[in-house]
Structure formats: structure tokens, C-alpha cells
Amino acid sequence: MILYRIYTEDKNSGLIRKILDKVLPAYTVLNGQGVWRSIPESGLVIEYMGQRNDRVIVERLCLEIKQLNQQECVIFTESEVKLFTV
Fold this sequence. Notes:
The chain is of the alpha+beta class. The protein has one domain (2-80): ACT domain (Alpha-Beta Plaits, 2-Layer Sandwich), CATH 3.30.70. The protein is built from two helices and four strands. It has helices at 13-23, 55-69; strands at residues 2-9, 28-36, 39-50, 75-80. It has a four-stranded antiparallel β-sheet, covered by helices on one side. It is globular and about 40 Å long.
């Protein structure tokens, strides 16, 4: 499994969730504080657990969010994870 994380400004969060709902079966949104070029801002981290080939979907989501929020960039990371059930 791959854990994808999208880092973006906390702006238009309702519209971002609508975009995510159309594409992702499940996700988590974490609210926090970030800094961009020494300026503090509210931030969102969107977590999605998927497959390696979901990268194309995540890239497309980042572009949509970037355009919606008129941001210079939206960052995403991917990490391979192992799932354990208890």
C-alpha cells in the first residue's frame, strides 16, 4: 500500500472535499498550521491510502486544488506502508 499525503492551504476546504469525494473512496483531512516563505498560514494535509498506480489520480487532484486555490504549488508525498490488523 502507498500512503499519499497532499499538503495545501486551508482555503476552499468545502470545495476541496467535494473534489475528493468524486474521486477517492476514503481519505482523511488533517487541519494544521504551516509556513510558506516565512508567512504562517492555515494548512490541510489530505491522507489517502492507495496503490502505486493511484499516483496519477493524486497528481490530478493536486492540480485541481492548486487551480482552485490559486496557489503557487501544492505538494504531495508518497510512502510505502505495510498494513497490520489487530
